[in-house]
Amino acid sequence: MLRRLTVALWSLLLVGAPALAQQPPPNSGLDGFVPAQSLPQTEQIPAAPLLLSSYAFFLVLMMFYLWTIWRRISKVEQEMHDLERRQGTAKR
Amino acid sequence: MAVTAGLTVCGLASAWYLFKGTEMADKIGVASAELVVVFTLFGLVSGSLWARKAWGIWWDWEPRLTMAFMLELIFLGYIIVRRFGGPGSEKLAAAMGIFGAATGPFIYKSVDWWRTIHPKTSVMRTLADTAGGAIMWNVVMFCVAAFLLLFSLLLALRMRLEQSRAELDRLYLAAED
Fold first, then answer.
1. B46 touching A, CB under 8 A?
2. What is the pLDDT of residue A41?
3. A16 to chain B: nearest residue by CA?
4. Long-range contacts made by residues B162-169, C-beta under 8 angstroms, separation at least 24?
5. How many CA atoms lie within 13 Å of A19's alpha carbon, on the beta-carbon side?
6. Does B108 touch chain A (CB under 8 A)?
7. Which of A14, A42, A92, B62 has its CA 20 to 30 A from that of A62?
């Protein structure tokens, strides 16, 4: 148990070492929150279609995922009922 | 946030299963791994839409996005191993779950370590101090709570499927006896 934990810890450290060894690069990019309204007019793209697309994608994804779970549960439950019925028939 | 929750739950459950062999941990691991795939996919797509607005581009192979994409592939691999790996694939998948979860902190810190166009993690810390940031902070907190609740509900639902499958296996074994 202890040996396994040690191996796992060493593996994690070895995986992380290259990342930690990187030199900190010069500070570029955004360091803080910038409200979209403060951006220059030329850099502004209409947000509404993108926002609506994001909501739409999320709703479709959730509905699809829930449908897959419902379908899988129904399939398993159907199989359970079939098995119980077969067992009942065999006993008679 | 839901991905972080999924990674944490999957990593802990996978370690629990690998070292203790508890069946419940395996069920939690597989359920949370699937949720990591779903929420990472949403993060990649919505992030791309956000990037279009914020950066003017749909995608950039910068460290945060690339690592998030890799995370999606790792957990898709987890599901494929579980689906087609045959007997014993649970342990292999659990190892993948642990290493997949270990990428979480690297993905989070990647924006600080490798500076590109992606905002740093300090965005969240300084959010409340900026103009309009106090409202945004409340929105963020609301979304964190909502997504954690959604994650919990989906995890419970997905666990029900795993329990039904275990019950079916038990019935088949009983029928064979």
1. yes
2. 58
3. B106
4. B162/B27, B162/B30, B162/B31, B163/B27, B164/A73, B164/A76, B164/A77, B164/A80, B165/A76, B166/B23, B166/B27, B167/A80, B168/A76, B168/A79, B168/A80, B168/A83
5. 20
6. no
7. B62
Q: Cα separations (Å) of A36 from A39, B127, B158?
A: 6, 14, 38
**What kind and span of H or E run contains B6?**
helix B2-20
Low-confidence ranges of chain B (pLDDT < 70): none
Q: CA-to-CA distance for B4 and B6, rounded, in angstroms?
A: 5
Q: Name the residue with higher pLDDT: A43 or A6.
A: A6
Chain A (26-45) residues lying within 8 Å, Cβ to Cβ, of chain B = 26-36, 38, 43, 45
* pTM passes above 0.90: no
First-to-last alpha carbon distance for chain A, in angstroms, is: 51
Measured torsion, CA atoms of residues A46, A50, A56, A60, in degrees rounded to the nearest 10: 170
Query: For residue range B36-72, what is the model confidence (pLDDT) as tens digits?
Result: 999 999 999 999 998 888 888 898 888 889 999 999 9
Which two structure tokens, joined as six digits, stand for B77? 């691999």
Task: Share the mean pLDDT of chain A.
Answer: 76
Per-residue pLDDT tens over the stretch A32-76:
666 666 666 556 688 889 999 999 999 999 999 999 999 999 999
Q: What does each C-alpha distance from B161 to A70, B6, B35, B93, B101 come to in angstroms?
A: 9, 17, 13, 18, 23
Q: Name every residue whose Cβ is closer than 8 Å to that of residue B110 and which is 6 or more positions away in sequence.
A: A19, B63, B64, B67
pLDDT at A75: 94
